[in-house]
Amino acid sequence: MENKKIPTRMGDGSLTWMTAGEIRADIEEGTRVAAERAKVPPLDEAELGHLLEIFASASRFTGVDIGDEVVLTYDGVGSQHIGTRIHDLQLYEQHLGADSVELYHPDYSFKAVKTVVPYEQGVMRQAQANVTVPLNYGAMPDLGRYTQPDGPVPNWSTLMPLGKIDEARAAQEEAVEHAVADMVYVCDGMLEAGADGVDFDTAGAAGDADFLAALRAIEAVRGRHPDAGIQIGMASEFVLGMHGNLEYEGVRLAGLWPREQMKLAAKAGATIFGPAVNVNTGKSGAWNVARAITIVKPCVQEAEIPVHMNVGMGVGGTPMAPWPPADAVSRSSRALVDILRLDGL
Amino acid sequence: MADPYDQLKESLIAGDGAGVERLTRELLDAGRSAREILDGGLLPGMEVVGQRMRSGECFIPEVLLSARTMQAALELLKPHLASGDSGSLGTVVIGTVEGDLHDIGKNLVAMLLQGAGFVVVNLGTGVTSAQFVAAVKEHDAQVLGMSALLTTTLPHMPETIAALSAAGLRDKVKVMIGGAPVTQAYCDEVGADGYGANAALAVETARALLA
Structural domains in chain A? Predict the structure, then answer.
């Protein structure tokens, strides 16, 4: 029985076969490496056992018990998978169980979207007339877009290897100012057009300056729209120090893990925090989920605002594949909800 | 009073160029040898910087500041080094392979290697295997570092290793490879001696290869 091979997934979505002992070893290693790296406690025996139960099952699909369901807050919907963007929002609302949906432009960058705000406002008004669930508008802070030749500031990734550290830092600081102005402008426009909330998605993708821009924009939007929903979804588990010295509310942003990210997001005025833990495609789903849960657990335990963890292509233990397999998505989703007691996904 | 080597080490870690220059001059004036200053403060300082980068406590800009500070200190020490002691840990020839123009990561590695005390000959991008071989020969390099970002240019790595063998240099130089598509498995497959998953680890690998 011990040597029976169980079908399971790798982080790239490919099917593999492992024994229960091998899956258990992966779960133990996943939590160990996460605990060491993020300096957080590893999962306890009961949690490891529950993960094994989920991943050692050969069932096609799994899910939480009735009554344990959580809110599904979707980002990145409302493109044109089928028909128009509004059809897409309706599809997620009516067929895929979405509790909130998000209209977005395919460029998915506040800098790009600012040029089409009046058009987006029209779509938002139409969409609000057609969906019932809360409807957000989302985009990325996308700080890299502000570098030359696409933007106004020198490219810090080019400056740094030349030893121009001060110039690289100054460029990032200038980009933050541009990004905050753009984000506030777009959020103003979309909230005035009827959006129930806004989403700052993939925050921190360009490092600590990117995260700072998102926090400062959230603070400004909260001040201007006291009742708006404000969601922030992170790009990864760890804020990279591309600048290194930036602070928000006296806290250095470089090197922050989800617990500290959440606290700053709450302080800025966000209403939902979405931690992200990226997937290692060379490791099994069991390894990745154990790692993700270990990293995010302290964030949920100390949550000051609802935590809706990012679960999807390449994050939250879900395979990095264009259409992640249902068996893998259901396993990672159930494991995250069961163990972390999340507010939503 | 704090140990002057500890002060030097801490100033280097902080990337305090003026402080490191002042302390290095003071130590030289006090009759300390250049080798003592290197081994007592500067190299241990860069070691700490590398460790902190690996553990996520400090980041690329800070590491580069320390590396730049180390470089300036090395320039001060050079005239005082004993004959035959270049102060360097070895010579590294580095470049991005033929057909590949990506050099940000490679330049970061070059800066960190210099900061750690290596002499670095940076050949730039699109370097052919013949150019790598010629540079290794000309500079009597102990390490050759090759970088690639494109999977399509990876085959130039084993091609260069074969060219080193054909030139009779393979046993005299350690080959390190790196870049986004490179893995330890690929390093083993093509017969390279070392792989650095990131810039800090590349420096560690270079040190280990020459230990």
Answer: 6-340 (3.20.20)
Residue A7 confidence (pLDDT) above 90: yes
Residue A77 binned pLDDT confidence (cut-offs 50, 70, 90)? confident
* Nearest beta carbon to residue A165 from set B56, B61, B107: B61
Average pLDDT, chain A: 94
Chain B CB within 8 Å of residue A36 CB: no
Check if A25 contacts B (Cβ < 8 Å).
no
What's B138's domain CATH number? 3.40.50.280
Q: HSE of B198 in the Cβ direction (CA atoms, 13 Å)?
A: 10
Residues B192 and B103 both lie in one domain: yes
Chain B CA closest to residue A160: B61
Closest approach of A171 to chain B, Cα-based (Å): 13
Q: What is the 3-state secondary structure (H, E, C) of A207-263?
A: CHHHHHHHHHHHHHHHHHCCCCEEEEEECCCCCCCCCCCCEECCEECCCCCHHHHHH
H or E stretch including A135?
strand A135-139
pLDDT at A1 > cutoff 60: no
Residue numbers in A near B109 (CB within 8 A)? none
Residue B123 lies in a domain: yes
Give yes or no: residues B181 and B117 share one domain: yes
Tell me the average pLDDT across A169-184.
98
Q: What is the pLDDT of residue A119?
A: 96
Query: What local confidence, expressed as pLDDT, does residue B39 receive?
Result: 87
Q: What residues form DSSP beta bridges with A16?
A: A8
User: Do residue B187 and residue B115 come from a single domain?
Assistant: yes
Indicate if the pLDDT at residue B99 is higher than 70: yes
B157 token code pair? 């790595």
- The Cα–Cα gap between A271 and A60 comes to 35
Residue of A214, A155, A160, A150 whose CA lies nearest to A187: A214
How many structural domains compose chain B? 2
Higher pLDDT, B180 or A78: B180
| Residue A85 in contact with partner chain B when CB distance is under 8 A | no
Distance from CA of A36 to the nearest CA of B (A): 10
List, for residues B54-65, the tens digit of each pLDDT value.
888 888 888 888
pLDDT(A258) > 90: yes
Domain that holds residue B73: 4-80
How many angstroms separate the first and last alpha carbons of chain A?
A: 35
Residue B85 lies in a domain: no
Rounded to a whole number of angstroms, the distance from the CA of A242 to the nearest CA of chain B is 7
pLDDT given at position B55: 83
Residues of B in contact with A204 (CB under 8 A): none
Q: What distance in Å separates residue B108's CA from the closest CA in chain A? A: 5
| pLDDT, tens digit, 9 for 90 and up, residues B79-97 | 887 666 666 789 999 999 9
User: What confidence score (pLDDT) does residue B211 get?
Assistant: 82
Residue type for A15, please? L
Residue A280, chain B, CB below 8 Å: the answer is: no
* Domain-embedded: residue B86: no
Mean pLDDT of B28-56: 87
